[in-house]
Recover the amino acids of this structure.
């Protein structure tokens, strides 16, 4: 076991864990941040997506010792930014979630997309979101919600 | 109807808790609290279908309270009070609609009676709105909270007056999910998130070959992994218990296990050979008209054989359960579609009285029928009884797919003869496959699986003479189970493919051909609507095609058109249109979500879904080898909802059953090739 100090959602958290522990289990088992979901354990479904210095990474294949001084954001911290709040409101307005299990990851991927591409095309959305599986089939509403959020970001409603 | 004053509020139950009524699916229990807020106890599982929203809407409508005043409370496991507490078969709204309306109306009448008595006026001079009883003539008003305790002393009306549809202010209005926010900020807690104090993580290692058992295990290396506290040897698995998930994963990897060869190594080719052979011999009769033998005897039959694979459910939340077993109490945290059955099964396994098994049911991270089986709960309890702390058993995605209870594989053989005008004169349909009913309800099984022949026994089409048979064929060692769409799913693929083939054979337009063979005006209604929605009669360029499927199932009617482009070994679904008549739609927004999601779920399976066995080993394990539909493959889906005042029908599965045949028919239209084996992409 080793002691790490990592920045998560704007706070420095102390973690005592094996260095190669995937961030997913650090968040879920050690830090009481279960919003990142376990879906595949192999970087195939995106349910565990977190931001590491803004980049969307799969927490299930990102080890604790790779974080270093980077800033980690999880779904629990998404609402701390204007972009995050706009996305969450768009998700609610479009009634995106069905079971909701994948939606933490969907929102985190969408936030990274909009941060880099404020007015994404459908192709941009396909590119950025195809790593996130939704078995309920909320894809049409995810697409609409991303466009809605993009409009809201630009001050259109 | 019963009223009850407990803890300073008005309680109304839909049924007094007698056994007969508990079985009548009257699962509502409503409490009006002194502050005027309303608690609705939900004995159904929320698994993404939006049932907590639609049931709240029904209650709030008759009770005359704003939706925001109603909060959902998940029912505790209590068969006596809430019945079986099962959620499946697209029944929740259809079976709760009348009961919940009566509960709301009864509570409203009791509140009005209490207010009228206090004011000394006639009840029919009072009105209700937004949680208030008002007496317009005198301008007086009281809140439901003010009246709840007094109203609770009054006898519940035996047959409260219900609103007429023109009085509806909530039912039928597009409404946003009431439980949406917790799903966008990460705060919703599924079964897998339960963490009672002292909980440890359990992971089981299973034989790579289905049905293999533990012969030898060397756990020394596993026990050296920091955080691993115990290794348990069970009959078919070895379980590692650890302080956290990562230690449990590493401990499981470090196990050295020798497995026995399975008694019956399953092989997909052999399974289908057995199924196909069974369609060549007569089965148990599900339907037979008197002249069918003579009508079939003349030869010249058109024949088609269809294959459908084993399917995994793969909900995004893998199977899991948290359990703590003490001498006199078992507590369980999980998400299940069958709380009542799970409670019973655990009580039996532990020899505990029913009321000593407490299940805390959480929202389900997807289910699709998988969580109708209590196997993961029982597996966890088996481990938890051997330790003195709570255990969270997690199935990794590989476990979830390989330990699934698969949708059965089926082979169907259809034969028909048409008259000169293309009308079916004779029809024979033989179904071969596993019987889920025979496993679960052996007493009820008399040779025909009522689920497997759903929709096939009495097809929607006018068929002059027909014979429908079922041949039960089990794969030794394999447990099959329910999958979204159930029997209607398997039957609709073959029926709607075959009718399309017959239309081609008759030289008729597939839509016109169907239109000529149906009588039900509601079915004709959805058919006509979807044809208009998708511009059926406009031609498409080469390589593209449209396919149609219609069905009446789950007390609802649906018609779907899928438009595809086919090329380079891939099928691209360009767009989908679906018309549904589900009777009165409680929440049209929820209907649209279910139609879109249900269609994509069905398309995903029809394109690539398949579980296969080779020499006993399952060849799929995660989303790389068991691919599911992703954003870049998802078409747009136009939904047309027929305006109807008929009793509400089910909707979560109807679009799913239409997807595969509409897709196969579209591929046939685009390429001229008829694919009779699912999944379709493997056949290109």
């Amino acid at each position: 076991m080793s002691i790490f100090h990592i920045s998560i959602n704007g706070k420095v958290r102390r973690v005592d864990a094996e260095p190669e522990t995937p961030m997913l289990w650090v968040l879920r088992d050690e830090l009481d941040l279960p919003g990142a979901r376990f879906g595949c354990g192999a970087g195939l479904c995106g349910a565990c997506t977190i931001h590491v210095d803004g980049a969307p990474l799969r927490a299930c294949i990102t080890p604790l010792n790779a974080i270093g001084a980077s800033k980690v954001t999880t779904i629990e911290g998404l609402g701390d930014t204007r972009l995050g709040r706009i996305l969450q409101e768009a998700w609610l307005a479009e009634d995106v979630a069905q079971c909701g299990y994948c939606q933490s990851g969907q929102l985190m991927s969408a936030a990274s997309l909009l941060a880099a591409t404020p007015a994404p095309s459908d192709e941009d959305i396909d590119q950025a979101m195809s790593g996130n599986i939704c078995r309920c089939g909320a894809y049409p509403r995810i697409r609409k919600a991303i466009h809605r959020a993009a409009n809201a970001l630009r001050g259109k409603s | 109807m019963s009223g009850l004053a407990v803890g300073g509020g008005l309680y109304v139950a839909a049924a007094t808790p007698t056994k007969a009524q508990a079985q009548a699916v009257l699962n509502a229990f409503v409490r009006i609290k002194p502050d005027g807020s309303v608690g609705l106890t939900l004995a159904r599982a929320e698994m993404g279908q939006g049932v907590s929203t639609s049931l709240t809407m029904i209650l709030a409508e008759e009770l005359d309270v704003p939706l925001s005043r109603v909060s959902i409370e998940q029912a505790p496991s209590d068969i006596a009070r809430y019945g079986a507490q099962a959620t499946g078969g697209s029944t929740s709204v259809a079976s709760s609609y009348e009961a919940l309306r009566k509960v709301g109306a009864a509570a409203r009448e009791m509140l009005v009676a209490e207010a009228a008595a206090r004011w000394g006026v006639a009840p029919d001079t009072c009105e209700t709105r937004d949680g208030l009883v008002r007496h317009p003539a005198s301008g007086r008003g009281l809140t439901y909270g003010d009246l709840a305790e007094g109203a609770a002393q009054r006898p519940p009306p035996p047959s409260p007056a219900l609103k007429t549809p023109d009085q509806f202010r909530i039912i039928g209005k597009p409404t946003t999910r009431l439980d949406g926010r917790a799903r966008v900020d990460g705060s919703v807690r599924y079964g897998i998130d339960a963490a009672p104090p002292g909980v440890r993580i359990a992971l089981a290692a299973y034989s790579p070959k289905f049905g293999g058992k533990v012969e030898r295990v060397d756990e020394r290396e596993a026990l050296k992994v920091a955080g691993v506290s115990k290794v348990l040897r069970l009959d078919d698995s070895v379980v590692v218990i650890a302080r956290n998930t990562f230690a449990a994963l590493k401990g499981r990897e470090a196990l050295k296990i020798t497995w026995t060869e399975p008694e019956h190594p399953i092989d997909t080719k052999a399974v289908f050979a057995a199924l196909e052979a069974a369609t060549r011999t007569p089965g148990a009769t599900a339907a037979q008209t008197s002249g069918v033998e003579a009508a079939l005897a003349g030869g010249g039959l058109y024949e088609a054989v269809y294959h459908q694979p084993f399917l995994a459910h793969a909900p995004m939340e893998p199977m899991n359960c948290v359990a703590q077993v003490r001498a006199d109490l078992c507590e369980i945290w999980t998400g299940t579609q069958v709380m009542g059955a799970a409670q019973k099964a655990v009580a039996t396994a532990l020899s505990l009285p029913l009321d000593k098994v407490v299940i805390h049911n959480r929202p389900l991270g997807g289910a699709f029928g998988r969580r109708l089986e209590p196997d993961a709960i029982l597996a966890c309890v088996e481990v938890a009884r051997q330790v003195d702390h709570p255990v969270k058993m997690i199935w990794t995605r590989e476990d979830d797919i390989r330990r699934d209870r698969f949708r059965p594989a089926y082979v169907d053989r259809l034969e028909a003869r048409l008259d000169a005008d293309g009308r079916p004169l004779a029809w024979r349909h033989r179904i071969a496959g596993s019987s889920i009913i025979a496993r679960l309800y052996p007493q009820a099984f008399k040779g025909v699986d009522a689920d497997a022949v759903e929709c096939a026994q009495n097809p929607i089409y006018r068929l002059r003479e027909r014979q429908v048979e079922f041949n039960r064929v089990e794969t030794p060692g394999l447990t099959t189970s329910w999958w979204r769409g159930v029997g209607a799913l398997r039957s609709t693929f073959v029926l709607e493919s075959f009718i399309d083939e017959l239309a081609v054979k008759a030289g008729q337009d597939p839509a016109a051909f169907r239109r000529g063979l149906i009588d039900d005006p509601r079915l004709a209604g959805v058919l006509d609507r979807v044809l208009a929605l998708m511009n059926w009669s406009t031609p498409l360029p080469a390589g593209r095609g449209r396919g149609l499927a219609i069905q009446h199932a789950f007390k609802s009617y649906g018609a779907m058109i899928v438009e595809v482009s086919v090329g380079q070994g891939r099928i691209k679904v360009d767009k989908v249109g679906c018309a549904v008549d589900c009777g009165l739609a409680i929440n049209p927004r929820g209907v649209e979500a279910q139609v879109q999601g249900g269609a994509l779920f069905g398309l995903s399976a029809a394109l690539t879904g398949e579980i296969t066995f080779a020499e006993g080993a399952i060849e799929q394990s995660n989303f790389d080898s068991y691919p599911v539909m992703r954003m870049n493959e998802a078409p747009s889906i136009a939904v047309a909802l027929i305006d109807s005042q008929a009793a509400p029908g089910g909707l979560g599965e109807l679009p799913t059953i239409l997807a595969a045949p509409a897709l196969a028919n579209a591929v046939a239209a685009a390429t001229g090739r008829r694919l009779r084996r699912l999944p379709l992409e493997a056949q290109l």
About this structure: The mean pLDDT of chain A is 97. Strands of chain A lie at 2-8, 11-17, 49-52, 55-58, 71-73. Chain A has two domains: 2-77, 78-153.
